[in-house]
Amino acid sequence: MKDSELIKKIKQGETELLDVLIEGHYDGIYRFCYYKIGDREAAYDCAQETFLHLLRYLDTYVEQKKFKAYLYRIAGNVCTDWFRKNSVQFAGEELLETIAKEDGELKRLELSDEVFRALQVLSQAQKDVIMLHFFYDFKLREIAQIINVPMSTVKSRLKQGMDKLKAYMDRSI
To answer: Which of 31, 71, 84, 168 has the fewest Cβ atoms within 10 Å of its own Cβ atom?
Structure first.
């Protein structure tokens, strides 16, 4: 069943379908939070908070473009709030290799150590766009919605990031 159908039925009173909706997205949201924060317990808490926000505001949710993008935007905001509360800097750069070792989906991608080193040359903003696009299969318009920037900014970050990666890989060969 599609997310839009699940949400419609949940709003009509079939609250038992909440489990189906949450289970369908939980692993991805947890991995995203872990990528952003770098701490298992904090990522778990942020994933839980993401779904609490969803439940709290589900009645006001209006189907926009894609529910998954909406949910990842909530998760991104929850992670940002966590950093504000804990006065911690984004730690994504050091964590890419750890995440890939522990995450079955990223293992499947079989990224080499060289790719991880290449990702380290990117700014956090470029890395976020590249991760969301290539690791989580979001379209550029969805990424713009998730990180709350114009589409042109997403395109620019993707192009600049890919140019940096290409230059790094060319130097490494």
So the answer is: 84
pTM for this model (two decimals): 0.67
> What is the distance between the alpha carbons of residues 173 and 130, in angstroms, rounded to a whole number?
22
Polymer length of the chain: 173
Helix (H, G, I), strand (E, B) or coil at 87: coil
**How many helices (H) and strands (E) would you count in the chain?**
10, 0
In whole angstroms, give the CA distance from residue 53 to residue 55.
5
CB 75 within 8 A of CB 29: yes
Encoded tokens for 30 = 């947890």
pLDDT digits (tens, 9 = 90+) for 46-93: 999 999 998 888 877 777 778 888 899 899 899 888 888 885 444 444
Return the number of other C-beta atoms located less than 10 Å from residue 51's C-beta.
20
